[in-house]
Amino acid sequence: MAEMTASVAKPVTVKAVDLKHQPGFSVVAWTCLIVLYAPIAVLVLFSFNENRSVALWTRFSFDWYVKAWNNEGIQNAAIISFEVALVAMVASTIMATMAALVTTRTAPYRGLNLAVTIINQPLMVPEIVTAVATLTFFAIIKKATGVTGLGYLIIAHTVFCIPFAYMPIRARLEDMDLSLEQAAADLYAPPLKVFRRITLPLLMPGIMAGAMLAFIVSLDDVIITLFVGGPGETTLPIFILGQIRRGVTPEVNAVSTVFLGFSVVFVTLIFLFGKNKK
Amino acid sequence: MTKSSNHQLPESNLSASVIAAEKQLKKTRMLLLAPGILIILLIGILPLSIVLTYSFMTPGDYGGVKAEFSTAAYVQLLFEEDIFDETFSFTSSYLQIFGRSLALAIFATVASLLIGFPTAYFIATRTPETRSAWLFMITIPFWTNLLIRTYAMLLILRDEGAINLGLMKLGLIEKAIPMLYTNFAVCLGLIYAFLPFMILPIYASLEKLDFRLVEAGFDLYANRFKVLKRIIIPLAKPGIAAGCILVFIPSLGAFITPELLGGGKSLMIGNLINIQFGSSRNWPFGSAIALILMALVLVSLMIYVKRSGEKGASAHG
Q1: Position B95 confidence tier, pLDDT thresholds 50, 70, 90
Q2: Do B46 and A248 touch (CB under 8 A)?
Q3: Would the CB atoms of A115 and B33 count as touching at under 8 Å?
Q4: Does B199 reach chain A within 8 Å, measured CB to CB?
Q5: Matching CATH number, B93-310, of 1.10.3720.10, 3.90.20.10, 1.20.140.10, 3.30.360.10
Q6: Does this model's pTM top 0.90?
Q7: Interface predicted TM-score of the whole assembly (ipTM), two decimals
Q8: Do B238 and B311 form a contact (C-beta atoms < 8 A)?
């Protein structure tokens, strides 16, 4: 009300106000950013603490990193994590690319919506439910066939990676210009050649972003791996979870910091790929 | 935008080849879709029907199930069987866990909205460069490991954690306030975990906001609060709805956060399921709870789709 009377009384001297401004919003935003990063900062900081304590700072050191690096459990877990994530990434990205090619830039056809819904299904079911369902299913198969191994974990990861790989590929395809492919076809390039020489190179940033998303999602997974992974199939997050349950140590902080750093680099790359689009 | 170029060609001798091309197209479609769809049907959807079947069976002696029909899993949820006289009496212990999960998820959603909306608005009103820096900063936690972030939360909430030590150093408190293993810690953990899910969709709808409407509001003597309430928030509704559903659903089914921050005192549905498939080994009961959780999620998704369907589908994805 005060504002109103002021502007009515002296309309000429009203100073240029920032129309977009809302009081207090910037404070909330900055607080939000600090809250998001403060716990991570504490974690990273104490991974460099010489002392065993994760509470009292004594001296800077790389000891815990050296310890973590030489820890066989961590080494094995890292290898399994990468194996699973790599295979799941390749498999899910190929399937997602194939699916994206026939679910975008097309006239609606029967089953199109159903296909897209099925592809996104792993995103809609709570992870713990998927984990339990996959566990029961694999238990039946294991009992019936006697086959065990890392394959189960890889298949489970592949499935939930598909929608993540699909998203950026689909987005990229939808932004792509059809005319280049039409021009190639008009010049009598066979469909496969059009795909290989035109569509695929143009689609590559989307495929790369999709593959990296799939990789990071697989690498980060805890719940499904916890249920599906057999004995000896401990991935890095599962190893970290086990350590945390046993007690907080700077060694866990060191592994976590490396893991975080790796994720940050990856996310940065995805971000850059996304930017190149325009 | 044209779907095919056959309209440019003479029609007479083409109908046969058009049909052939159409057939070929269908075949390609099937071939390209098949691997992805089949693997999701087999590993993602078929097992859900096994869970449904298991929920009506009898628990096996060492985990797993016995193929005897039983509704005990669902009865157990509400009633306790007396071992001696085999009568059933009402028990609220499982209902309490469901209630707590719902309450924590709702609370986390509301809190995330209260923090996330101003943040998203703040970001959307920056210059393009600042905007993309902020977005980048918000996206990083979005894609970094949830387990590690929750562990980081645990580090600062502990009795010897940064918050307690800081407050003690300042002389504000004498003894550490126990924060870990409480509903408060779980709620904080959920907000911390899923806040980016709230900010990003709200930002996406605010980014498209036409600020001339805000200007018009001011011209009509609305104050800042009124502009916010009557113009900005209504226009950001699709983003707000998407953000709320993206925080609520993972919060409801959360497992890691209550596992690390709630301990045994603040169990949520996710932990209850885990326990049934782990130490106490009652797969049918675990299956029944998993199905109820899924039903709750589907109901909230349906409410969301119905609500947002009324006002364009601009924010899906």
Answers
A1: very high
A2: no
A3: yes
A4: yes
A5: 1.10.3720.10
A6: no
A7: 0.86
A8: yes
